[in-house]
Design a protein that fits this description.
Blueprint (H helix, E strand, L loop, with lengths): L6 H4 L7 H12 L5 E2 L11 H11 L14 H15 L9 E4 L2 H12 L5 E6 L4 H8 L3 E6 L15 H6 E7 L11 H14 L2 E5 L21 H4 E6 L12 E5 L1 H12 L7 H12 L3 H22 L13 E5 L6 H12 L1 E2 L1 E2 L10 E5 L4 H14 L6
The structure holds pyridoxal-5'-phosphate.
């Protein structure tokens, strides 16, 4: 049998980490200990009070039936309260918040609400692969906005050709940024709002890392900028701040007509998230801020061990203000792929090639801080002993 795949599936980009995953498997099969700085997934457990809430609510039969596809009003109210407390942004939970099965779900599905085949969507490069993936599934064509070190990894909106800007229906942005660790100010968001107004573009801001920040830095919300709510929405979730990536619960908030469209699409695709999980997420959002501060202190300590350790060997790493990623250029004479393979081969340490996040990631690599300090020290030691000379 041979089943002809739909064009939208054929159009999906190949999985760029396939080669490195094969190499990792080979090493492991050979009994070599591998330290992975590859995956961006919190290693710490979900806080106890959240787990306790799940257990309690899982026992309540009222939660065993189909939930609402847009989420419980009490969950959406909790998200609205959290926005008011954290950002000073007032949201109407009935019309300006929709519950998602993780923010990734909404990021992929928003393209189905607004993009027809052949439409143009502005996507950051390097970037989280789901922006382009969702758009390609909808038949649309991504126009990649390069994120360059010299501009602090903010897209240069002035260089987007006018005919592309006119044609574009949506724009994705993401700050604090994966994979670069870059942050954006409110004044950049204000520029985005002005651009969106001028060209009638729907802005989708991915704020997955808004709570993962260090050294007193507090990332702003896109929605706190005047006019943002008329031109866009913001995606976020409890995944990164509360170590809950496996739980699959998030939200989109902002422009009411967009939230309505996403909710209507979802009512045709899924039946929402298990209510006990919604209660657990509420326990996180209503609970003590210390759980976030504690995990951020841990990432900061790890960041300093890794960055200071490798810089003492002559690497040129910068300390990110937010996210749990360190993003840096590869040494002279290397590509993203050759350097990634060298570090794996010689030191048994997995880092990810920048090209996995787009063509403009070429010449860069990413390291994740989601492994404990002892393993990070060991990674630095192994690189020191075994990597051989590299020149940054
Ligand atoms: C982790 C991540 C997400 C999605 O997380 P969910 O678990 O689906 O909420 C979204 N955007 C970026 C950039 C991420 O790194």
């Amino acid at each position: 049998m041979r089943f002809e795949q739909a064009q939208r599936v054929k159009n999906l980009p190949p999985y760029l980490f396939a080669r490195i995953e094969r190499l990792i498997e080979e090493k492991k099969a050979a009994g070599i200990d591998i330290i992975s700085l590859g995956i961006g997934d919190p290693d710490q457990p979900t806080p106890d009070h959240i787990i306790e809430e799940l257990i309690k609510e899982a026992r309540n039969p009222a939660n065993h039936q189909y939930p609402s596809s847009v989420g419980m009003l009490s969950y959406r109210q909790t998200v609205a309260n959290w926005y008011a407390g954290r950002f000073g942004v007032q949201l109407d939970p009935k019309t300006e918040v929709v519950t998602l099965i993780g923010s990734k779900e909404g990021i992929a599905h928003i393209s189905w609400c607004y993009l027809n085949p052949g439409d143009t969507v502005l996507v950051p490069d390097p970037g989280y692969p789901v922006y382009a993936g969702g758009a390609i599934l909808a038949g649309a064509e991504p126009y990649y906005m390069p994120l360059k070190a010299e501009r602090g990894y903010l897209p240069d909106l002035a260089t987007i050709p006018t005919e592309v800007a006119r044609r574009a229906k949506m724009m994705f942005i993401n700050y604090p940024n994966n994979p670069t660790g870059a942050v954006a100010s409110e004044s950049f968001f204000a520029e985005v709002v002005a651009f969106a107004r001028e060209f009638n573009v729907l802005v989708c801001h991915d704020a997955a890392y808004s709570e993962v920040a260090f050294d007193g830095y507090r990332p702003p919300s896109f929605l706190q900028v005047p006019g943002a709510r008329e031109v866009g929405i913001e995606f976020s979730s409890v995944s990164k701040p509360f170590n809950m990536t496996g739980w699959r619960i998030g939200w989109a908030a902002g422009c009411a007509e967009v939230i309505e469209a996403l909710g209507r699409l979802k009512s045709n695709l899924d039946s929402g998230q298990f209510q006990a999980i919604q209660y657990a997420a509420m326990a996180g959002l209503n609970g003590p801020r210390e759980v976030i501060d504690r995990v951020n202190a841990l990432y900061r300590e790890r960041r300093d061990i890794l960055v200071d350790g490798l810089n003492s060997l002559g690497w040129k790493l910068e300390k990110p203000k937010a996210t749990f990623y360190v993003w840096a250029p590869v040494p002279a004479g290397h590509t993203s792929e050759s350097f990634t393979e060298l570090v794996l081969e010689k030191a048994g340490v997995v880092i990810t090639p920048g090209t996995g996040y787009g063509a403009n990631g070429a010449g860069y690599f990413r390291m994740s801080l989601t492994v404990d300090t002892a393993r990070l020290k060991e990674a630095v030691e192994r690189i020191k002993k075994n990597l051989g000379p590299v020149r940054f």
